[in-house]
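Structural prep section.
Before we set up the soaks we want a predicted structure of the protein with pyridoxal-5'-phosphate in place, mainly to decide which crystallisation condition to try first. Input record follows.
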Amino acid sequence: MTDQLPAAQLAHIAATRHEGDAAFRVLSREDFANARAEITQWEGYAPTPLISLSALAKAISIGEVLYKDEGPRFGLGSFKALGGSYAALRVLQRQISAKLGQDVALADIRTGRYKDEAAQITLVSATDGNHGRSLAWGCQRFGAPCRIYIHAEVSEGRAEAMRDLGAEVIRISGDYDESVILAKSEAEENGWFVVSDTSWEGYSEPPRDVMAGYGVMTSEICEALPTAPSHVFLQGGVGGLAAGVVAGLRQHYGADAPRVVIVEPELAACLFESGRTGEATNFAIQEETLMAGLSCGEPSGMAWEILAEEASDFLTMPESIVAPTVRLLARPLEGDTAIEAGESAIAGLAALIAARQDAGLSEKLGLDAHSRVLLIGSEGVTDPAIFAQIMNGQDVV
Ligand SMILES: Cc1ncc(COP(=O)(O)O)c(C=O)c1O
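Run finished without errors. Recording the C-alpha cells verbatim:
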C-alpha cells in the first residue's frame, strides 16, 4: 500500500433493510423513462465518462474502481444539472397546463411556444450551490424568473455562478435550514413555486422529478456495464442522489443490483443517523463540512423510503481525507486518468480507500480483491478557488 493513499477510521453501521418495493414505487420506470426522453433531447446533452481507475484498484487490492465523472455534465459541473432543471420544466408544464386548461408538452415549453406564460412563473429554491445552479440554468433555458436563497457559508464563487445564469441570489446570515424556511415563506406570500431537491410532508412532485432526472446518469452507467458492479459507494446530502441511483440500479439489474454503501461527512450524518434509528432522523450540524453539497441535516423523506430498503451500510468519514483524495484524483497513480473533482465528489472514493486499509471494515462491507466498485464523481471543479487551495497542498478543513 503506498502512503499516497489517505487513511482514516470510518464509523460504520450495518443497516437492517426494510422489505418493500420503494425502488419501483417511489420512482417508477415511467418517471425515469420520461425524464430520460426529455433530457437527452436538450442541446449539449452527452453521456459523461465512466472511468476505470485500474492503478488505484490494484493499489487497494480490489477488482475494479469505476468512477462516473459528472464534471462535464451540460457544462454545469455536476450531476445536479440533470435534476433541478428538469424539475423546473415539469413545474412549468403543470402550471401552464392548469392555466390553459389543456395538457402542454415539455418539448413545446422547451422550444419557447409558451414563453409568455413561462415568464410569469417564478421558481425559487434554497441551495448550497449545485442544485441552485441547475435550477437557474433551467429557468434561463425555459424563460422563467429564478430566485435562489443561499446561507452564510455558501462560497461567493458558487453564488456568482448562479447570478451568471440570470438568477437573483439572496444571501441570508443563517444556515441552510433557515434559507429553506425563507424560500418557502416568501414563495407562499408571493405565489412563487419552490423547486426543491428534498421532499417533506405534502411536497413530493419536484423532488421526484429531480431524482428522475438523475436517472439519466444511472442509465448511462447501466448501458456501459453489462454486468452489475458488486458495490456502489454513494455520498449523501439529503439522499436524493443515492436514492435516485439505487432505484435505477435495482430496476435495471434486479436481484444482481450492487450492495449499497452510503457515505457522509462526520459533520453532517443525517442518513447515518437514520440508518441507526431505522427511520428518517435529523442531525444537528454544529460545524460546516468542506463537502458543501453534503452539508444537510435533514434527509429527504422520499429518498429515505428508498434507502431504508436498499442501503446495506452507512459510513461517516472525517474531513482530513477530503483534500488528499481530491489531490490523488488530480495527480493519479501512474496509468490512471487524471480527474479534477470537487470536494463533495470524492466522498465515496475516500471512504472506499480508507475501508480497504482497514481489514475489519473491508470484511464487514464484503470488499475483497474481486469487488467491482461503482462511484459517482458527483461534481467537477464547481469552486475553482477551493480547488486551487487544495491543489496547493493546503488541507482545507
Ligand atoms: C456534488 C454533490 N454531490 C452529492 C450531493 C448530495 O446529493 P443529495 O443531497 O441528493 O444527497 C450534492 C448535493 O448538493 C452535491 O452537490
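Observations: The chain has two domains: 11-79+207-391, 84-196.
Flagged for discussion at group meeting.
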